[in-house]
Amino acid sequence: MPIQPDPFQNNLLYSSLTELFGDFDDTVLSTITPLLEGIEIQGGDCLFRQDDPGDSLYFVMSGRLQALVTEGGGEFRKIGEIIRGETVGETALITGDPRNASIFALRDSSLVRLSKKAFEEVIAHHPAVALNMAKRIIYRLKNTPLPGKSHKKPVTICLLALHSTIDLAGMARNLNELLRSKGSVYLMSGDRMNEFSDQANERPDREADPAPFRTLSRWLDHLESQYEFLLLVADPPEPTGLLTEWSQFCLHQADDIVQFADAQQASDLTPPEIQLHHKGLITGQVETLVLVHQADTLIPRQTAGWLSKRPRIRAHYHIRAGSDRDLARLSRILSNTAIGLVLAGGGARGFAHVGVLKALQEHGIPVDFVGGTSVGGLIASAVSFDQPAEIVRKHARKGAFFNPTKDYNWLPMISLIRGQRMERMIRDTVTEFLNDHEPDLEDSWLTLFVVSSNYTQARAEVHTRGSLVKYLKATTAIPGVFPPVIDGDDFLIDGGTFNNFPADVMRQMPVGRIIGIDLVVEKSRKLTISSIPGPAKLLRDRFRPKKLRKFRLPSLASIILNSTLLYSSSQRSQIRQYVDLYFNPDVSRFGLMEWSAFDKIVQKGYEHAMIVLKSRSADEQAMFRGEPSEER
């Protein structure tokens, strides 16, 4: 059908046409406009399939689409999303190639179609349009953002309570206020919908119009062009546990469905969850589980039980009832402005992370996601418990002075060190933090990941679920120094072998900015010898005072550890591009296993971080604190 005049979408369409075809005059516009066709597609429906002919391009006016490619086994893999104001299918229109992906609607969507025949008619009258289009496509391909970032900010968010004990109305009001610092927000509940329908006198006639709430759906399309966020608050479940018609509409129209559950309740599926899946109300949208805990909860427990029964959940988060900080964190996550903290490996030098953490907290910079490798993973786990830096320092210091490398293996068949002290240090530190409780990775307040290397499969492993102690052992299991960790049929070793600074992993999380703490030693070593001396000479030299030593050679432990980092080091310049705020304290004078230098290393990290932060402008610091800019 021809496109209908719509004051809310005409500007968006004109902007989309200009973005693709370049600036053009009214003559070109008068040629294109009659050839455009408006179409509507319901959530879950397919627009076109992979390998179909590339016979049209589409402008997205409202809603959200997803692009899927078919793998060798016939399974779909998501490669991206297309949102309001973007186009799909333009490259195939020029090349004539088949579609390289299938496009499905995540929710009810309005599109504008330009067929290949219509496009050829346009360029027959205005050849410059084709040239402009080709230039812009090439420009976009050359300036494609760095790979790995797949999350797009949701526009329409449905808030759904799974239990009657959840104060959803209160949380919605608070989220509404918090999101206003990120952009314009429109909050709508079932009551407000009734007010709108009464004022407009346009209640949908369900008998005449089989698509319920059609008028409201179009009105939401208009709101999406005016607001950056729409918060749709579902009704409380009816006494029977069924979802109201308004709630069903919210679920069907949302980009992101945020389900709030009372963590004190049993983890069984609730009636609303059973209904929304059985009735097909979910058509591929992001499903997020928010577990609401009592205000005095020290650490969440038994999260695995909730997640195992909900395999479709994309992400889960923990908040405490009445906690403004936790709700502020959730608002940053929902708006894709969350802060991710990445901590590199580096032996005892990694204690510098604690000093940087202290500086970040003093500057009011929050952390929402945290991950790391090796010692970076150890410190990341402490950060994920959401404690002040001084508490993290206290427990980390106790672990350092325990010295986890003292249990030498006198018959080193697999490793130089037995690793029992390392496991004891990890377990004791965690349980002292958490009053004798040993959590899983998914139980942390802040979303946590640690990286290990799979010796058996020759690949990096990113751990987000499972035993925290086990995977902290794995990420610190330096090959040859500590024994590998057995995980099923695989051996896991120190994550630094593949990825010692996992900023690329953090980039795949729904974060807006990444803070990275690296431990790169950038000083080059000057050698005064041409061959390695014999062991007797080396031993005598070691007994001399440090300043009088003749041979400036790395220790055996340093050679083993640094050898495992060679591949990671070669990738560092590329991975560093993902980091928005970069710290690299100079801790080169400290040994990789110099545990007794804990206080000095922490202080070095703190001093470096303060210098870096003071060099940033007030606006930049406010940006990392999540404060609104002066422009807003």
Automatic annotation (TrEMBL):
<feature type="active site" description="Nucleophile">
    <location>
        <position position="374"/>
    </location>
</feature>
<feature type="short sequence motif" description="GXSXG">
    <location>
        <begin position="372"/>
        <end position="376"/>
    </location>
</feature>
<dbReference type="InterPro" id="IPR018490">
    <property type="entry name" value="cNMP-bd_dom_sf"/>
</dbReference>
<dbReference type="InterPro" id="IPR014710">
    <property type="entry name" value="RmlC-like_jellyroll"/>
</dbReference>
<keyword id="KW-0442">Lipid degradation</keyword>
<keyword id="KW-0443">Lipid metabolism</keyword>
<dbReference type="InterPro" id="IPR000595">
    <property type="entry name" value="cNMP-bd_dom"/>
</dbReference>
<dbReference type="InterPro" id="IPR001423">
    <property type="entry name" value="LysoPLipase_patatin_CS"/>
</dbReference>
<feature type="domain" description="PNPLA">
    <location>
        <begin position="341"/>
        <end position="507"/>
    </location>
</feature>
<dbReference type="Pfam" id="PF00027">
    <property type="entry name" value="cNMP_binding"/>
</dbReference>
<keyword id="KW-1133">Transmembrane helix</keyword>
<dbReference type="InterPro" id="IPR002641">
    <property type="entry name" value="PNPLA_dom"/>
</dbReference>
<dbReference type="Pfam" id="PF24179">
    <property type="entry name" value="NTE_Ploop"/>
</dbReference>
<dbReference type="Pfam" id="PF01734">
    <property type="entry name" value="Patatin"/>
</dbReference>
<feature type="short sequence motif" description="DGA/G">
    <location>
        <begin position="494"/>
        <end position="496"/>
    </location>
</feature>
<dbReference type="InterPro" id="IPR016035">
    <property type="entry name" value="Acyl_Trfase/lysoPLipase"/>
</dbReference>
<keyword id="KW-0378">Hydrolase</keyword>
<dbReference type="GO" id="GO:0016020">
    <property type="term" value="C:membrane"/>
</dbReference>
<dbReference type="InterPro" id="IPR056556">
    <property type="entry name" value="NTE1_P-loop_dom"/>
</dbReference>
<dbReference type="GO" id="GO:0016042">
    <property type="term" value="P:lipid catabolic process"/>
</dbReference>
<feature type="active site" description="Proton acceptor">
    <location>
        <position position="494"/>
    </location>
</feature>
<keyword id="KW-0812">Transmembrane</keyword>
<comment type="similarity">
    <text>Belongs to the NTE family.</text>
</comment>
<dbReference type="InterPro" id="IPR050301">
    <property type="entry name" value="NTE"/>
</dbReference>
<feature type="short sequence motif" description="GXGXXG">
    <location>
        <begin position="345"/>
        <end position="350"/>
    </location>
</feature>
<protein>
    <submittedName>
        <fullName>Cyclic nucleotide-binding domain-containing protein</fullName>
    </submittedName>
</protein>
<dbReference type="GO" id="GO:0004622">
    <property type="term" value="F:phosphatidylcholine lysophospholipase activity"/>
</dbReference>
<feature type="domain" description="Cyclic nucleotide-binding">
    <location>
        <begin position="20"/>
        <end position="123"/>
    </location>
</feature>
<dbReference type="GO" id="GO:0046470">
    <property type="term" value="P:phosphatidylcholine metabolic process"/>
</dbReference>
<keyword id="KW-0472">Membrane</keyword>
